[in-house]
Specification:
The complex is a heterodimer of chains A (about 170) and B (about 180). Helices cover about 70% and strands about 0% of the residues of chain A. Chain A is an all-alpha fold. Chain A folds into two domains: about 5-50, no CATH class; about 80-160. In chain A, helix 5 (about 80-110) packs antiparallel against helix 6 (about 115-145). Chain A is elongated and about 95 Å long. Chain B contains nine helices and no strands. Chain B has helices at about 5-15, 20-40, 45-60, 70-95, 110-125, 130-140, 145-155, 155-175, 175-180. Chain B has about 180 residues and is mainly α. The chains are: A mainly alpha (about 170), B mainly alpha (about 180).
Chain lengths: ~170, ~180
C-alpha cells in the first residue's frame, strides 16, 4: 500500500483503521507499524471523526415510538375471523330462512288474488317479519368488522404485499 | 450472501405480533430517526419521515423474503427516498432553508461547547452536497460497510470513496477551527 493510498483511505474512512474496509486493514496496520509518519493522516482524520461524533443524533421520542407502534396493523384474532365466518354463514342461512318463511306467510297474508302490484306494496311487511330472524347475525357481523378491525384486516391480508418491495420508496 | 439479522423479527412483525412490533420500533426507530435527522437537519421533518417509513414497513413486512438486500438496507433506501423528496420540495420553496451557522462567541462551559460543536457539525453537514452528506451519514454514522453503502447509493465503491473523501475534506476545512480550540 502506497503512502498516497493510505492517506486516501484515511480521508475517506476516518482515523480508525478498524473501521476501514476489511480488505485494507492488514496492509494498513503493517504500514503503520513500519512507518511512524503514517500516523499523521490518521491523526488528522481522527480529529474530524471526533468532531463528527460530537454531533448528537436526533432522538426518537417516546411519543414518536408510541405513535409508530399504534400505527402498526394488528392481526385479527382467530375468534374474530371464526366469528366473521360464522356470522356470514348465519346471515346467509337467515336470509334463506327468511325467504322461505316469508314465502309461506305471504301466501297467508293475502286472501284476495295476489297481483304483482300488491306484492310490491306488501314487501316491507314481509321484510319486517323476516327482520327479527336475521337481526342477530347481522349485528354480529357488523361488530366483528368495525372500522378499525376492518382497516387492520384489509391491510394485513392485502395480497399486493407479495410483490414490488424493492422499488418501494 | 450474509444472513439478515432482522429476518425473524420482520417475520414476526409481519404476523402482527405486538411484542415483535414493540421490539422492532425500539431497535429501528432511533436508527431511522438519526438517519432522517442528519439528512434533513430538522426534527419535525425527520419524525414525519420516520412515521412514513414505518407505515411502509408495516405494509411490507409480511411479504418480505430474505434476498440480496437486508431489511435494514431496504429501510435505509426508503428513508433516503423520503428525505430526498423533502429536500427537493424544500429547494423548490426556498434556496435559503439551511440552518445558519451559530455565532462563535465565548462558551461558558464544556457542556455548552459540546452543544455548540454539535450544532456546528450539523450545520456543516447540512451545507454539504446531498450525495456527499448521504455517503458520510451511511458510512460514519449508520456504520454501513463501503459495499453496503455503495449498493444502497447505486454507485461503485470507488465512487463512494470519492464522495466520502470530498465530503470529509470539505468538513475538515469548515470545522478546522475545532482542532485548534
Amino acid at each position: 500500500m502506497t503512502a498516497e493510498r493510505f492517506e486516501d483511505l484515511a480521508m475517506a474512512y476516518g482515523g480508525d483503521i478498524r473501521r476501514w474496509p476489511a480488505e485494507y486493514q492488514t496492509e494498513a496496520f503493517a504500514r503503520l507499524a513500519a512507518n511512524e509518519t503514517a500516523r499523521l493522516p490518521l491523526l488528522e482524520a481522527g480529529a474530524l471523526d471526533t468532531a463528527l461524533n460530537a454531533s448528537a443524533p436526533m432522538a426518537a421520542s417516546g411519543v414518536l415510538r408510541e405513535r409508530l407502534i399504534a400505527s402498526a396493523p394488528r392481526p385479527r384474532p382467530v375468534w374474530s375471523r371464526a366469528g366473521a365466518w360464522m356470522s356470514g354463514a348465519g346471515l346467509a342461512a337467515a336470509c334463506a330462512a327468511g325467504v322461505f318463511v316469508g314465502g309461506i306467510n305471504s301466501s297467508r297474508l293475502f286472501t284476495a288474488p295476489v297481483t304483482t302490484a300488491s306484492r310490491t306494496v306488501t314487501a316491507p311487511a314481509v321484510a319486517a317479519r323476516v327482520a327479527p330472524v336475521s337481526a342477530a347475525p347481522v349485528s354480529a357481523a357488523t361488530a366483528s368488522t368495525s372500522d378499525t378491525a376492518n382497516d387492520a384486516a384489509s391491510v394485513y391480508f392485502n395480497e399486493s404485499w407479495f410483490s414490488g418491495l424493492e422499488s418501494e420508496g | 450472501m450474509s444472513a439478515d439479522p432482522d429476518e425473524a423479527l420482520v417475520a414476526a412483525v409481519g404476523r402482527g405480533e405486538p411484542a415483535a412490533i414493540r421490539a422492532f420500533v425500539a431497535a429501528k426507530a432511533p436508527r431511522m430517526m438519526a438517519l432522517a435527522g442528519r439528512m434533513l437537519g430538522d426534527a419535525s421533518e425527520a419524525e414525519d419521515v420516520t412515521q412514513d417509513l414505518f407505515l411502509k414497513v408495516w405494509k411490507h413486512a409480511a411479504a418480505w423474503r430474505p434476498g440480496p438486500a437486508k431489511f435494514d438496507t431496504w429501510m435505509h433506501r426508503v428513508a433516503l427516498n423520503l428525505c430526498y423528496d423533502r429536500l427537493r420540495r424544500r429547494r423548490e420553496i426556498t434556496t435559503d432553508a439551511l440552518p445558519e451557522r451559530v455565532d462563535d462567541g465565548p462558551a461558558a462551559d464544556a457542556g455548552l461547547i459540546a452543544a455548540e460543536t454539535s450544532v456546528q457539525v450539523s450545520a456543516a453537514l447540512a451545507r454539504l452536497p446531498d450525495r456527499q452528506r448521504e455517503a458520510i451519514v451511511l458510512v460514519h454514522y449508520q456504520d454501513m460497510t463501503n459495499i453496503e453503502a455503495a449498493a444502497l447509493m447505486e454507485v461503485s465503491v470507488e465512487a463512494l470513496e470519492s464522495l466520502l473523501s470530498r465530503g470529509r475534506r470539505t468538513l475538515r476545512d469548515t470545522l478546522g477551527y475545532l482542532r485548534n480550540a
